[in-house]
Structures are given as C-alpha cells and as structure tokens.
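Table 4 source record.
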Amino acid sequence: MQAKRWRSHTGCGSPPKPSTIGSLPRFIRPGIGNDRKLHEQWNIHIERLRSYKKVKSGIWRDLAVRKRKTEIGHQLSPVLEQAEQFGVEMPLTRTILSMIKDIEEGTRQMSWDNIQQLKQLHESGKKASHEQPL
C-alpha cells in the first residue's frame, strides 16, 4: 500500500528503504500532528551534518571558488514542477533559485543580504515578488 501511495504522489516506483534515508524524517509532513517528531528527526540530521569536515556546499564552492554555474536548476526545477502539480507554493525555493541564477550571471553578489531577504520573505509569509517561470 505504501509503495502504491508513493507512486501515485511521485510518479516513481517504491519509496526509498528506511536504511537509505538515514536519519531523515520518514515521510513525516509538518502540520499534521507530527511536528515534535519532525523536529527530533531534523535535530538528529543536523547533528550528523555538523560532524562533516566540509562546511561549504558544492553550490557555494561552484559560485565562490570555481566561478562557474551550478546544477541548481536541474536539482530544483523538478521539485518546483512537482509542487506546482500539487498546488504547493514554494516561494523560498523559487527565490533561492532566482538568487543563485542571478549570482551565476553576475547580476547579484554573494552576501549576507541574500539571507536577510530570504528571512524577510519567510517571516512575511508572502509569495516571492520576482518568481520566475520554471
């Protein structure tokens, strides 16, 4: 039954086995009474990430060190397309994608101002004002 439900929501085969998703939450969605469990799982995941030696993402290295385009469009566009099919608005994800594309094109600088803008968008609960089509 779970595989059928997974396939109908994602268009993919079976869901990943619990052993392949490590400490990530297992199909827990916020807002349906699992918030405490969700936060516990994220805290476990965060602690594991803190033990990693590399503290900068590959995206950050591509932009700041290698001065090359990232694969972010290939990574996030399918997620945004899926969200659109289900009527899920993802203003922060769309804004992050737009910001990274701007940095790649040289029309935006990497700075803490970008984080501040994302924080303000999150706190306002509004849609991104410069959403771009997929």
